[in-house]
């Protein structure tokens, strides 16, 4: 059975110090928050975390920074996390920055068994320092390596008993590719259905990539930056 009763049991036997973890999500959208909480509670340390960003202070991966369980982040955008910046500037956190598209392709490549690829992005910048470069058809490229983790934790909108997953809109982000790029993938699923209820054409992550899963029916949908418009009357406008 792939379905476990809670995050702690789903992660049992998988966590250890100095491991590499991929965590899906973009900002606070589509993050496996319950699974991240269980990782924190386990007390594992020395973690290298591959994620587009590090959540925000006190939410998402931010809680692993608070406890200083993370020693290295492989990320793209981290500008919303003050603690991340503080630890980086203090030399307490190693950061491997990636252009966002390059990060996505490194993860996809890792899941596809591709050890490295060439991209124009970052050539001639700090990103390319120490990396192999080549010319193709007169254009300069920098070599980037694929990424593969010990564990991937992802969030899905829907899943069935066989582990087939469906993501909803922008919460899809990094989750599908990360689910393919780790030795073990654990998913938290908002809506759990019976095997066969998901149309095969609608499956984003086939169950063969998912080892364990938990049902999180009331997953909290957090807003990173709430943006609202003024009510027409209070703005002094007429309808």
Automatic annotation (TrEMBL):
| Signal sequence annotation | none
Q: Which UniProt keywords apply?
A: Transferase
Q: Keyword Lyase, does the record have it?
A: no
Q: Name one GO molecular function term.
A: CoA-transferase activity
InterPro entries reported for this sequence: 3-oxoacid_CoA-transf_A, CoA_trans_fam_I, NagB/RpiA_transferase-like
Keyword match Transferase: yes
- UniProt-listed NCBIfam families: pcaI_scoA_fam
**Protein name per its UniProtKB record:** CoA transferase subunit A
Q: Which organism is it from?
A: Aureimonas fodinaquatilis
